[in-house]
Amino acid sequence: MPATYLPTLKQLQYLIALRDHGHFGRAADACFVTQSTLSAGLRELESHLGVMLVERTRRVVRFTPLGLSIAEKGQRVLREAEELSAMAKAAHKPLSGDLRMGVIPTIAPFLLPRVLGKLRGEWPDLKLFLREEPSGAACESLHRGHVDCVILALPYACGDIEHDDLFDDRLYVAFPAAQAEQIGDLVSPDAIEPYRLLLLEDGHCLKDHALAACNRPELRAEAGMMGTSLHTLVQMVDNGLGVTMLPKMALDAGILDHTSVVARPLAAEHPSRRIALVWRSGSPREKEFRLLGKALRKASADHTEKK
């Protein structure tokens, strides 16, 4: 009985790159090989398996259903192989070498500047590769193995994950300074006029957290314009176009500097989002991620105490 052919990790890497990029040249660049090398590796894989994985035409690259299934399975195999290597490194020296971390846009510009310096000081051998994406894309990148962990705002449906809570991030209502005398030290959700509420566009979990905190379902349907970033929303408010919701970390980072916008805490039953480090459930690097969570928690707390 002939031996079963086992694809090499390099062949799986070529296949997955082609699926992700949909183009032989771009896939080859991503793998740091020539296009002919990548193409030959895939043909060898197909030949040994005795199946067609990719339909090649002059204009498009189209995966067969089996090709897509094998690429999906291959992604998990590659991910496990990478985690085995990382686990071996961590056994000798934790938080050293490469670590790919996703961060969502409503956290990245406000948290990273205050913690990265301390992380480098405490773990000088750690080489962080950062990837900024909205929550849904970040979770997909996590499960596809494109990143090892993600700094995310919870609650959020991110699939089969484990997490380490970092801190709570209070929500504030931001409004033009002209309204300051009409508003007290806290802002009730009932005081927010739906047609004046400015929110982030779909895909940002902060939008859902803000609406959930207000517990007013009609706000989702009646809210006004949407922005692509918190900075855009602040500029809209500063020009008198409405009010918006901002997390405390953005206020601490100075997002309202050089504006006339005023912010007050939201008075609600659950007025905060929970910032956490998340990773794939069952990852062999769990101890390392919890160590990273502890370092992020400490770095953030140290920064807050100094303010």
From TrEMBL:
Domain HTH lysR-type: 7-64
Transcription recorded as keyword: yes
UniProt cross-references to Pfam families, sorted A to Z: HTH_1, LysR_substrate
Gene3D superfamilies the UniProt entry points to: Periplasmic binding protein-like II, Winged helix-like DNA-binding domain superfamily/Winged helix DNA-binding domain
InterPro entries noted in UniProt: LysR_HTH_N, LysR_subst-bd, WH-like_DNA-bd_sf, WH_DNA-bd_sf
Keywords: DNA-binding, Transcription, Transcription regulation
Coiled-coil stretches: none
Entries under PROSITE patterns matching the protein: HTH_LYSR
UniProt KW Transcription regulation keyword: yes
Similarity remark: Belongs to the LysR transcriptional regulatory family.
PANTHER family attached to this UniProt entry: TRANSCRIPTIONAL DUAL REGULATOR HCAR-RELATED (PTHR30346), TRANSCRIPTIONAL REGULATOR OF OXIDATIVE STRESS OXYR (PTHR30346:SF10)
Protein name according to UniProt: Hydrogen peroxide-inducible genes activator
Organism: Sphingomonas natans
Lineage: Bacteria, Pseudomonadati, Pseudomonadota, Alphaproteobacteria, Sphingomonadales
